[in-house]
Amino acid sequence: MIEVLPNKCDFCGCCVGVCPEDAIELKESEISIIEDLCTNCSKCIWSCPIEVLKFNPNGVGGTHDEK
Amino acid sequence: MKNKYDIIVVGGGPAGSTAARFAAEQGVSVLILEKDRDIGYPVRCGEAVSMAGLEEFIEPDPRWIAGEITSFSFIAPDKTQIDIPFEGKGCILERKIFDYELANVAAQKGADILTKSYVNGLKFDDGNIVGVKYEYQGEQKEVDCKIVIAADGVESRVGRWAGLKTHSDFRDMESGIQVTASGVNVDENTCYFYWGNIYAPQGYLWIFPKGNGIANIGLAITGDIGKKRSALSYLNEFMDNHYPNASILTQIVGGIPFTPTLEKIVAPGIMLVGDAARQINPLSGGGIISGMIGGSIAGKVAGEAINKNNLDMISEYEKKWHARLGKRHEMFNRIKNGIYKLSNEKYNSIAHSLKKLPPDKISLGNVAKAAVLNKPSLLLDVAKTFFNN
Fold first, then answer.
1. Nearest to B155 among A16, A43, A50 (CB)
2. Most A CBs within 10 Å: which of B175, B224, B236, B250, as the mutation test of the A interface?
3. What residue ranges do the domains of chain B occupy?
4. Prediction ipTM score
5. Which of B121, B277, B281, B308 is deepest in the core (most CB within 10 A)?
6. What is the reported pTM?
7. SS3 letters for chain B?
8. Smallest Cβ distance to B253: which of A17, A18, A50?
9. Do A16 and B157 touch (CB under 8 A)?
């Protein structure tokens, strides 16, 4: 599953803008992944300018296809 | 603050405030909901705009202009530098103050503004949008309206809740990072652009001077590049190599969708403006003026629709946007696809062929005509479009 490192996050919204599932909740200085919606596609990880998101292989599996 | 408005604008950036202003000018009631504590902060922007673009909307004011731009400089991977005088005039904004002023203008026209209001849903009645849901000081609230104008930036979630496809492909989303640094010794009236894989593959690196030795230094790369290496690491490398002694006053990040406008930016009861509509110039990444243009058209159309009691009229916004800028952005996008993936060698050879021209011939217009080999005119189009919305 995808995890956010909240202490590193700048809350810019880049990840939200590429998320095909609307699975990221972003407030002024709070961010969370809505696990029920997340498909682990990893696009948010690739788009983050400052390496805030990471894939945790111990979590629920998912697809990595580039759609 | 009322419990019912004609129009609710979600987001208090330049597009949102401009939409609110043009709607409120027509006597309809408007509320801006801004999720952050402050209008204008945090800034997520290189802050470069054309003076002509600004003047369409607001009298330039030294309070929010950090520097004036009269020339461009392109730097190729082998450090060949091409200087080109800018036919018009550009400026570097102080966005914190600029955004405040735009919101102030909207307020003077009658718009209400509520900050720290996090919109987290739309309110529907029988399938129609009748308001928005938002969180304010820990409480879930609702406010009714006839039209929602979504100016919620790169996230663009409000449009999704209305059924529009708003997210961008990660390969088109540029991941941007910028520092505002002190001790940067550059010409204070020149914008510098660095091209090539060594600086910012599938994007570019910029230095925009803000006066007194301060400059915005930033870059953007696509998600495709970000898979292998982050924007942060590219910028760190550049700073280490070029400005190891600069002091960093602030570091910001942000997503810049380098795409044409979304296929649909209107649906019953909702209009998308600015970054939320992907109204950014897909070649330069500039979105301030184009967002204000989108906002002005949307606000005006929405106000008229309310006054004529004909909400179907809002569909005109999409046509008017495409006629004004949307079609041009499609062309810019094709140019972008032609140049953003060139090799270091290609950028070098373009720079070398430009360098052969006599200095007095190096103007944006003349070079575009004179230089056919290697299509350097494409690079010049980039320059032009920076300050042409």
1. A16
2. B175
3. 7-44+96-169+261-329, 335-387
4. 0.90
5. B277
6. 0.92
7. CCCECCEEEECCCHHHHHHHHHHHCCCCCEEEECCCCECCECCCCCCEEEHHHHHCCCCCCHHHEEEEEEEEEEECCCCCEEEEEEEEEEEEECHHHHHHHHHHHHHHCCCEEECCEEEEEEEEECCEEEEEEEEECCEEEEEECCEEEECCHHHCCHHHHCCCCCCCCCCCEEEEEEEEEECCCCCCCEEEEECCCCCCCCCEEEEEEEECCEEEEEEEEEHHHHCCCCHHHHHHHHHHHHCCCCEEEEEEEEEEECCCCCCCCEECCEEECHHHHCCCCCCCCCCHHHHHHHHHHHHHHHHHHHHCCCHHHHHHHHHHHHHHHHHHHHHHHHHHHHHCCCCHHHHHHHHHHHHCCCHHHCCHHHHHHHCCCCCHHHHHHHHHHHCCC
8. A50
9. yes
